[in-house]
Amino acid sequence: MNIKSVKGMNDIFAPVVNAWSRVEDTIKKHFRTYGYSEIRTPIVEYTSLFTRSVGEATDIVQKEMYTFLDKNQESLTLRPEGTAPVVRAVLEQNLLNSDPTQKLFYLAPMFRYERPQKGRYRQFHQYGVEVFGVQSAYMDADIIAMLRALYERLGLTNLETRICSLGCDNCRPQFRESVVKALSSKKGELCPDCQNRIEKNPLRVFDCKNESCRKISKNLPSPLDFLCSECQNHFDALRDNLVRLKTPFVVEKHLVRGLDYYNRTVFEFTTTQLGAQDAVGGGGRYDKLVGQLGGPSTPAVGYAGGTERLMLLLEEKFLATENLSVFIVAPDEAGLKEGFRMAFALRNQGVSVELDYSGKSMKAQMKRADKLQARFVIIIGQSELDRGIGVIRNMQTKDQKEVKLTDLEKEIIGSLN
Ligand code: HAM
User: Fold this and answer.
1) What is the pairing mode between strands 250-251 and 160-165?
2) Three-state DSSP class for residue 140
3) How many A from CA of 307 to the centre of ligand 1?
4) 128 CB under 6 A from ligand 1?
């Protein structure tokens, strides 16, 4: 039996992986320009990190985590998202002691046991940012405008930016109460899951994909109708700041995210080009999470986008084969000995070089140089060596010239520049 990759987990290889690398390089550069530094955390964490942050009643914790016991009977989980691990790391490494404002970014694989389909996988990748220690709505707008600029830089101009506010511990209870009241009156029309949610976590009803539940949730109250004056001011300031930066957005009155840690600002970038998986990425404020995980009370805000979804939109544009600079054609053993030495001399000067070790015919080697799209071919065999020369062939113009062996490396580097 042939062993296959695990369902919902994909290999990424050339030429697609080249497009990934280019896009990831652009993302990293962009985040660094905005003052973020990279953080890498382990793929596996203690399960309690996610149950305590993402939330017991969420789909992620209830249905989607890859959780297992290790040999020491500890419950571990493949991270389903990046925020909780970053908070854990920031606290464990005391990063807030050295600087109470931390701006961190990551690009990393995540794992969720979801039903795979286009844009939805069981291993997927996120690029994300997390900011700690800034309460101001300037920061919320800063992140949203930064992402909008990133997407524009990548050539995505038709994304929609949706924003909302979930309020805080002062005003959310009133919102929650009004949702419970509205849901209770429609209990019979809700799916069994949502009937249970009414008591446990009524706001998760907004996530339900069931048709009848969706109809009901559309008409539920919005958190925006219950904001206390401080949350209202924060939301107004966010909108003003976005307008100041000419960042377009729409207010989505029922933008409810699939994780429990948010308060105040939540936002998403969406597209109409990916069918059901329309969220390119999402984020928001989580001012309570650092405290909940045992740290000092610290405001925080962040975002994560899905790399696979981004690549579905961008792959073709960034697709390109990595060009090979030189292929050395050595038709005999004497030529191979010299070509072998020269390949390493050139490679160590930063030139990409390939050559053939299997003693194929000159014609076969030329064919391979063509296939690899080499810019130049160097031909060295016994007859060239006897005359102290090598031949350089420009594969595009088909021009060929003889060059003294001692000048060959210099000549080829000159031609490449
Ligand atoms: P999230 O909305 O769960 O947020 O995920 C963010 C993005 O990851 C989604 O919008 C989507 O593009 C991508 N994504 C999620 N699940 C899958 C999947 N199964 N297959 C492919 N792509 C997927 C978070 O994870 C939060 N940690 C974001 C955040 C950062 N909030 C504050 N800071």
Assistant:
1) parallel
2) helix
3) 10
4) yes
Cα of 279 from ligand 1 centre, angstroms:
8
Ligand 1 site, residue 368, Cβ cutoff 6 A: no
The answer to whether the CB of 393 falls within 8 A of the CB of 414 is no
pLDDT higher than 80, residue 245: yes
Q: Is the pLDDT of residue 321 over 80?
A: no
394-410 burial, b at 16+ Cβ within 10 Å, e below that, comes to ebeeeeeeebeeeebbe
Ligand 1 pocket residue status of 390, Cβ below 6 Å: no
Q: What is the pLDDT of residue 92?
A: 98
Is the separation of the CB atoms in 212 and 190 below 8 Å?
yes
Cα–ligand 1 centroid distance for 303 (angstroms): 8
Does any ligand 1 atom lie closer than 6 A to the CB of residue 305? yes
For ligand 1, is residue 83 a contact (CB within 6 Å)?
yes
> How many Cβ atoms are within 10 Å of 278's Cβ, its own excluded?
15
Query: Which of 36, 53, 102, 124 has most ligand 1 atoms within 8 Å of CB, for mutation?
Result: 124
What percent of the chain has a predicted confidence (pLDDT) above 70?
100
Which tokens is 400 given?
A: 């060929």
Angle (CA) 250-247-288 rounded to 5° is 70
Find the Cα–Cα–Cα–Cα dihedral 302, 310, 222, 171, rounded to 10°: -10
HSE of 255, CA atoms in CB hemisphere, 13 A: 26
**Reported confidence tier of residue 334, pLDDT bands at 50, 70, 90:** very high
Cα–Cα dist 96/245, whole Å = 29
Compute, in angstroms, the gap from residue 186 CA to the centroid of ligand 1: 31
User: d(Cα 12, Cα 63) in Å, to the nearest integer?
Assistant: 27
